[in-house]
Amino acid sequence: MKNKCIYGLLVGAMMAGACPVWGETVVGETVSPSDSIKLVVVSDNDALYYKVVKGVTSIVEKSALGITSSVGDFSTGLSEPSFTERLVDDSYSLPSGKRSRYDNTYKEATVSCNKDGHTVQFIFRVYDDGVAYRYAILGSGDISVYAENSECLPVRQEKVYSQQYTKNNQALYEENDTEFMACELYTPLPLLVHTGSDYLLLTEAMVNGNYCGSSLFVNEETKAYGYRLVGNVAATLPLYTPWRVLMVGSLESIAESVILENLNDKTALTNLSWVKPGRAVWNFGGEDFHSDYLSMSNIKKYIDWAKQQGWEYFTLDKCWEQNGVSLKEVVDYASSKSVGVFVWVNQNSLPSDESAMASMVQNWKAQGVKGLKVDFWESDDQAMMKKYDLLLKVTAEKQLLLNLHACTKPTGLRRTWPHLLTSEAVLENTVFTTFPDIHNINSAIIRGAIGSTDYVPVDFADKNGCIHQKTTAAHQLALSVVFESGVQHIGDAPENIEYNIAREFLKTVPAAWDDTRCLEAVPDEYVSIVRCKGNEWYFASLTHAGGDCIGCSASGIGKKAG
Q: What's the rounded Cα separation, in Å, for the pair 509 and 525?
């Protein structure tokens, strides 16, 4: 298109708002509340596109918009668009997360078009730390969605970090290139791009049973990233799709961002007194999944350890039912020690019928269980998203906390459902997954940017005291602050902590924070996080010293009042 720039300049004076490209017309522009990020929406040959500029630097060049459905293909052939904008300030509080008070100020721009008797809206929100957009197809009746034409074309890509596709979102965050990703059928969200001057993190928000989850692919022709739906969508009009999210800025601002929560609907729950974040003991990891981890004597040992440490929860993990564990005995003993119990559940055992699921959840509630750890979701299709919705609704009604495993990535739903305290969607730090320290660093930056992470920090050694992680003890301890989790599972056995200098620190480390700041971050190299609770600040840093030997990672951690 560069060879048309001169001609575009000649006709520019005759076309209000024209850009120096033939056929391209500016529909509207809007800037973030502090004027740091600008969104430009353009039309070209009856199709809509967008661009993103930070300061004076172009971050995202002309990228396609559109959605294809049973009621029409809204990627092209659109009517003359109308453009409106407004400033919104919608701050709120949550019981867990990177902060307790969420500032939610943004500019919202809506572009409305018509085609074949249907109105489609392209809704944009522009924040100081990013841009998001989604589609609204108005009207009534049924609709099937087949695909989106949603793309993002970064102006520059010096480095790209992503996972390879796994159905449970458990893979290393590594540097890749667009040629590699063009050969992959799926590239999971989130994806981080170093644009040279800034960073760009692509993900999605507010994914629920009205739609499905998405992954990325590389358009071989345009080289843009496109959103690929996980299966088709069957819904009713009006339809509002999930948000396509572009976090934009320094790596520090991306790590601090709460844009995903901000893009979700506020909670309808009026009583949140039962939503209590906390630390948990985890005998599944502490005992290295040895066969006796489900013996009652071992369970009581870990509950006693939680009591000694002042931690709030014990998680009764997988296979407890098959091994004949008495849930009543576990809960009664934990209650006598003022320790709450999470129980592991395979989502495949949960019915999809609301009354049947409510009955099952009520049974756990009646026995004194405080929360559920629900595992093996392993799909982002619409049917599974509907099951997430149902579980979130039922557990909210029964006042049970939630921890999701082998699940979809966070999309900010904890604003709507604050009892969703944490989720996995990461290759976690356990005896089963020893990996280079750079995965901890990259996961903290990329996965940590999008939501609470059940990473199982603090794995000093196996149950016999033998070091098996490729990191230092300081690095392992730092993970307890670097990774925010509304249920913070401490992964090691009591014997490895009882006489450790870290014990007193672990007694006090919070599971919910009032503020979070990222001081510095570079993928594959280091990340430094400070978090505040009350008048105390906790500092943690992960670094990579090179090589892959045990102890190659130097890290620091600290706590300061005031």
A: 25
> Can you read off the two tokens belonging to residue 459?
């794995």
Region 250-271: mean pLDDT is 98
- The pairing of strands 536-543 and 555-561 is antiparallel
Spatial separation of the C-alpha atoms in residues 363 and 241, rounded to whole Å: 35
**Helices and strands, number each (H, E), in the chain:** 13, 34
Burial of 559 by CB count in 10 Å (0-12 exposed, 13-18 middle, 19+ buried)? Answer: middle
* Six-digit token string for 308: 């000694």
CA distances from 141 to 188, 207, 429, 501 (A): 32, 21, 47, 64
pLDDT in tens, 343-374: 999 999 999 999 999 999 999 999 999 999 99
Length of the chain: 562
Residue 368 zone, left/alpha/beta (φ > 0; ψ -120 to 50; rest): left
- Please give the Cα distance from 129 to 258 (Å, whole number): 9
The vertex-336 CA angle with 335 and 342, nearest 5°, equals 25
What pTM does this model have? 0.93
**460 in the Ramachandran plot: left (φ > 0), alpha (ψ -120 to 50) or beta?**
alpha
